[in-house]
């Protein structure tokens, strides 16, 4: 990502401000607003970084759609003054979006304007294939470049086998073995991480420890992992955006217990690229990859080049994604119906008022 910029917001260059953003901001600047990047979000307010340094700003009423709420990584136009306010969010170049924790039909943005998404997997245990595939689909869908990072490889029984397994789960993505203790892979990983970077993974995966190694300082709190289940506590309690010493910025996210897919059709195709590639050779365009004659996907399983588990996982995530999409469609229909009913009630009240005159 380019860090060339005009002199006006020069101090923001280390946070990712560039010429394209600067040119798109001219209208806001003429209205007296200043550019800022959201580095942390609290209810009713945001911490932002501006050309003059950090600032706490208020936010307007909570939007009906959580996707429109400010998120760590957002670029914004801020109205300065005694009571500074976030006036408008700039269009996002990318966004990590999952289904909301409440399981409503809304999506939730985990991080905005992300260039590289690192899926962090602890090497001290066998990877959960479905979890890795889910996070990769999320990353691919966002528009960011995914990288799979195995942490704690100094404690792994068979790190080569682990990396081979992860590579099969992540077609098209780099897979890097790292150890903060020995320093293995840290330099290579630093070279792959560019622009705005987000770390994704469950608690205990080693995200905060890895982030501290990349930052070159213990900026983030780390916690011990429970022996009985290998899971860690949520040492990161909110998403924060921190500049890296070699350029770029890092977003450390809280551990993700559950990640539901939200409108991730393209992300699933990229995460399961080898299945999509095989499917192009099927005899029928609408092949379900089950018992149809001439199914290239089933032929791939029979030949040993594709695992049945991988196909089952793809189908499961496709069903989940379709279910989330149907809920969103149902919500939008309900909102349109409510809007129509409100108009009808207003018209009826108007007619009754006219009738009494």
Automatic annotation (TrEMBL):
NCBIfam families: ribosome small subunit-dependent GTPase A. GTP binds at residues 151-154, 201-209. This is Small ribosomal subunit biogenesis GTPase RsgA. It comes from Saccharopolyspora shandongensis. Residues 104-259 form the CP-type G domain. It is found in: Cytoplasm. Belongs to the TRAFAC class YlqF/YawG GTPase family. RsgA subfamily. The lineage of its organism: Bacteria, Bacillati, Actinomycetota, Actinomycetes, Pseudonocardiales. Residues 112-257 form the EngC GTPase domain. The gene is rsgA. One of its GO terms (biological process) is ribosomal small subunit biogenesis. It comes from the Bacteria. One of several proteins that assist in the late maturation steps of the functional core of the 30S ribosomal subunit. Helps release RbfA from mature subunits. May play a role in the assembly of ribosomal proteins into the subunit. Circularly permuted GTPase that catalyzes slow GTP hydrolysis, GTPase activity is stimulated by the 30S ribosomal subunit. Binds 1 zinc ion per subunit. Its cofactor is Zn(2+). Keywords: Cytoplasm, GTP-binding, Hydrolase, Metal-binding, Nucleotide-binding, Ribosome biogenesis, RNA-binding, rRNA-binding, Zinc.
């Amino acid at each position: 990502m380019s860090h060339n910029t005009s002199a006006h917001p020069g101090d923001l260059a280390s946070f990712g401000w560039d010429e394209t953003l600067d040119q798109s901001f001219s209208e806001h600047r003429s209205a007296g607003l200043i550019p800022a990047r959201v580095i942390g979000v609290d209810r009713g307010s945001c911490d932002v970084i501006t050309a003059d340094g950090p600032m706490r700003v208020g936010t307007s009423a909570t939007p009906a759609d959580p996707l429109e709420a400010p998120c760590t990584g957002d670029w914004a136009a801020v109205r300065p003054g005694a009571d500074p306010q976030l006036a408008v969010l700039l269009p996002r170049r990318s966004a990590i979006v999952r289904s909301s924790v409440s399981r409503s039909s809304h999506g939730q943005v985990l991080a905005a304007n992300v260039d590289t998404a690192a899926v962090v997997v602890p090497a001290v245990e066998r990877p959960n294939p479905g979890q890795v595939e889910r996070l990769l689909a999320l990353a691919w869908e966002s528009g960011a470049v995914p990288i799979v990072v195995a942490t704690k490889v100094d404690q792994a029984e068979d790190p080569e086998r682990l990396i081979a397994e992860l590579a099969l789960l992540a077609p098209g993505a780099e897979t890097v073995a790292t150890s903060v203790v020995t320093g293995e892979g840290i330099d290579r990983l630093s070279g792959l991480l560019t622009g705005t970077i987000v770390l994704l993974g469950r608690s205990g995966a080693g995200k905060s420890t890895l982030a501290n190694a990349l930052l070159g300082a213990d900026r983030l709190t780390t916690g011990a992992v429970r022996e009985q289940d290998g899971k860690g506590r949520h040492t990161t309690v909110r998403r924060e955006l921190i500049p890296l010493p070699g350029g770029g910025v890092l977003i450390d996210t809280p551990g993700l217990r559950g990640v539901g897919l939200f409108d991730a059709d393209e992300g699933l195709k990229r995460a399961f690229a080898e299945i999509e590639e095989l499917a192009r050779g099927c005899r029928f365009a609408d092949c379900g990859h089950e018992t149809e004659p001439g199914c290239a996907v089933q032929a791939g399983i029979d030949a040993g080049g594709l695992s049945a588990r991988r196909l089952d996982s793809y189908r499961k995530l496709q069903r989940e994604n379709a279910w989330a999409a149907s809920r969103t469609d149902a919500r939008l229909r309900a909102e349109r119906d409510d809007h129509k009913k409100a108009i009808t009630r207003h018209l009826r009240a108007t007619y009754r008022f006219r009738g009494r005159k």
